[in-house]
Write a structure and sequence with these properties.
351 residues; Beta-Lactamase; alpha/beta; 2 domains; Rossmann fold; 7-stranded mixed beta sheet; 6-stranded antiparallel beta sheet
Amino acid sequence: MNVEDILRTAQEHNASDIHLVSGHPPMMRVNTVITPMDYPILTPESVRSALAKMVKPEQLAVFDEVKDLDFSFEVPNLSRYRVNAHSQRQCIGMALRSIKTKVPALEDLNLPEVISRLTYLPRGLVLVTGDTGSGKTTTLAAMIQAMNDRYRKHIITLEDPVEYTFESNKCLLEQRELGADMPSFSSGLKHALRQDPDIVLVGEMRDLETSQLAISAAETGHLVFSTLHTVNAAQTVERIIDMYPAGQQNQIRSMLANTLQAVISQTLFSRIDQPGMVPAVEVMLCTPAVRNLIRECRTFEIPNVIDTNRQVGMVSLDNAIAELYFNGFVSREDAIAQSAFPDKLERQLAA
């Protein structure tokens, strides 16, 4: 099996993901749909051999011990890939996510204009959330690049693994990879705060310690970006607070109310007007009203505040989906299926 040939074929079809699983032909995902590629069925030996060529011997030893391995892989003059190797039915499978080598401009991503304004914030916490594959990494990369082109500051990214690779422009920009450059996000963030950063990107707030450090960094004057696997702003706030023991939750509500600047929640749709994907984006900005709701444990009221504050740039998920539908980008069926309130959206689309 020649992995490079498979990856070149996948790129010709603009595939976002490639799956190499023993007992199946190579598979690719194009605009959310998995399809087989015109290659022979893979054997356990061929997938094992391909993995051995893609990683260092010490990484292969880690895989043999824990049966899972995350790493990045690059084919020169083609693309970079985020890869997960795993064991299934005592054979090896690999999932490769294609990473665009060029960081896209914010204005090319069909995002609300208010997101560009967030790159001018002097400090605070900005969260980009959504399901796996919803475009969080691309949005954050475009925001980092916008600041890299504008400011003379120090930016540190902590990633698992490094996906988009940046070149320092006006900023000094450092990228650290989980495993290769740091043992954990919390360790990397703790030490990053001693490295004179202005802006810090944390790949994911996946545990209590990382959350504590990220909020503390925002409190002490840094601009911090991170992600969570949540689908809307209210759920994002609750997920962070639920990480903490009950006795600390009132304190963290207060800290989060003071530091959180915005939550961007993304959902990707297949376009019906042309090949490709388009995001529906919910945006919550931390106005005084939102901060009070967080402090007073009334996050269930956040959707109402978003709906009534469109004039300042807030957008609810259903309004973003409705706009995509009325612009002819997505189908009615997809719009209603991905809605937060399907019955309400169905009435809105029929109006």
